[in-house]
TrEMBL record:
Protein name: Apple domain-containing protein
Parts of the chain that traverse the membrane: 12-31
PROSITE patterns membership: PAN
Key words, A-Z: Disulfide bond, Membrane, Signal, Transmembrane, Transmembrane helix
Amino acid sequence: MFALTDLRGVFLYGVSIIAFTFSSSSFYSHYGSTLINSTFKSLVAENPGDCNLKCFDEEGCMSINYDRENKKCELNNATKETHSTRLVRHARSIYATIKSPPVFPECKNYKLLTDASRHKSFYQDQQFCDWNLVPGWYRFSGEAGTMMMNECLPKYDRCGGGYLGWMDGTLPLYAHGIVERIACFYRAGNCCAMMVNIRVRNCGCFYVYELKKPPACNLRYCGE
Ligand SMILES: *[C@@H]1O[C@H](CO)[C@@H](O)[C@H](O)[C@H]1NC(C)=O
């Protein structure tokens, strides 16, 4: 599923400009134009907003051409600002320069988990736990790693916890929006001895996780 609930398309046909307003940013598109000689990837998208989101997930993507008739979404490595002569008339196409991805509230307002003892490689017979964790959005950073551990690590003396918490399932792309996942806690041969429902969002260059207080002490969310 794509996070299109945040996307409101304002179609102003006739004045040849289309504004898509995201929750906190917007971009302007040229209706009836296409940028030539700049497409490095071509795919199918349901609408211009969907095409725009696909651009966010592709490194080097700076603008898009969208053909409404065959739903073709072209990702470009140049813009009309950098290559003005490449913008040509094309009746069915919408061109849009991608400014910056919209910044969602949880990508701005999150708490950091930076403690080295939270990293999966941390080895010490010392037990912390997340019993006092305040529910909310968290980003793994610094010595804790860059994301929640994404594999079952069958150990009991790592990351400063008795039960090692890891996220089961794949990390979302930017275009996926907020996704639901399960944090599993390893204990005594069982990779998912206990579990907590969590949510995750790809913010573009990092992930944020909506975490709850685990149901017991010494359960700890591990980083990597
Ligand atoms: C941009 O894409 C075009 C078309 O695929 C390619 O020929 C060109 O080398 C690319 N330029 C850069 C700077 O990546």
